[in-house]
Amino acid sequence: MSSDRSDKNMTTTKANKRPHGLGRGLSALLGETSQEESVSAPARTGSSVQSIEIALIHPHPEQPRRYFDDAALQELADSISKRGVVQPIIVRPQGSTYQIVAGERRWRAAQRAQLHRIPAIVRDFDEAETLEIALVENIQREDLNPIEEADAYRKLINQFGHSQDALGKIVGKSRSHVANLMRLLELPSTVQKAVMEQRLSMGHARALIGADNCEALALTVEQKGLSVRDTEALVRKAKTGNVEARPSTRRQSGLGKDADIAALEEHLADIVGLKVDIAHNEQGSGLLSLKYSTLDQLDMLCQRLSGERI
Which residues of the chain have pLDDT under 50? Predict the structure, then answer.
């Protein structure tokens, strides 16, 4: 019997023990949460999940995410109608109300589902912490488009003095990823909007940076459905006065690597925020390598590959 009791204790210990290192992100910032409490007025901050009236909650004006897909929002609202809000949002007290730190999409969907209350964690975050947490949460969920992510980086740098390297460590990305994204903010607003609405990819946008008649070229790319390689060729031709785009051909890059493989490496690097190397052979097989420089970057990569959500 003592053996059975020992086995049960060991099982309980294993079940309660969180994985060490991986998947820290917001959990490290917020800590553990206890059972839900009903709240209809400004409540004390802490680790408990509290049920708060939706009417008392409002979004943060500097929330990194600005574009919400209507169909996806309705799908979430339908799910909430059936199952409720599974994961609490994060808010901070503001006078007699609350401001959203993370979870605006869930709050919007809960309103559509005609809920009157929503589970939330209340914390006293300052402005810099609020933007950092909102940025980390959206990036971990892959909810931000490249323009929104770049704009969030710019705000944290301009308002709170973060360096690109420090931001990379906060979100588990490389410094070059942060720098490359911020270059997208050099594009005209109409082109940025096309990226936000997913009419142009980040690869297309990067190819258009610094181009003359950028808006006209972006429209051509969108109308003709050009690939990223074709867009790069279009920009080069525009500099010589010939803007007729032709299908891209496979060719070797300056380092001896196929240009299409090099472009794919760059595209994947933009997605995961890490250095990517592809060794492709003539038999059609090869090796894909991802290089990380910090444990935080490894954490982020493991979360994405495993589908884990914080």
Answer: 1-43, 243-255, 309-310
pLDDT at residue 241 in the model: 61
The DSSP letter of residue 64 is S
pLDDT for res 251: 44
List strands edge to edge, sheet with 34-39. 34-39, 48-53, 117-122, 89-94, 97-102, 57-58
As given in the structure block, the two tokens for residue 14 are 């294993």
Neighbours of 225 (CB within 10 A): 7
* Alpha-carbon distances, residue 272 vs 51, 172, 259, 267 (angstroms): 35, 9, 20, 9
What pLDDT, on a 0 to 100 scale, did the predictor assign at position 142?
A: 63
104 is catalytic: yes
Q: Which of 32, 53, 62, 104 is an active site residue?
A: 104
Model confidence, pTM: 0.51
pLDDT of the residue at 146: 87
Complete domains list, the chain, with CATH: 19-144 (3.90.1530.30), 173-249 (1.10.10.2830)
Q: Which two tokens stand for residue 72?
A: 């996806």
CB 12 within 8 A of CB 296: no
Instruction: For the chain, count helices (H), then strands (E).
Output: 14, 8
Backbone torsion region of residue 192, taken as left when φ is above 0, otherwise alpha when ψ lies between -120 and 50, otherwise beta: alpha
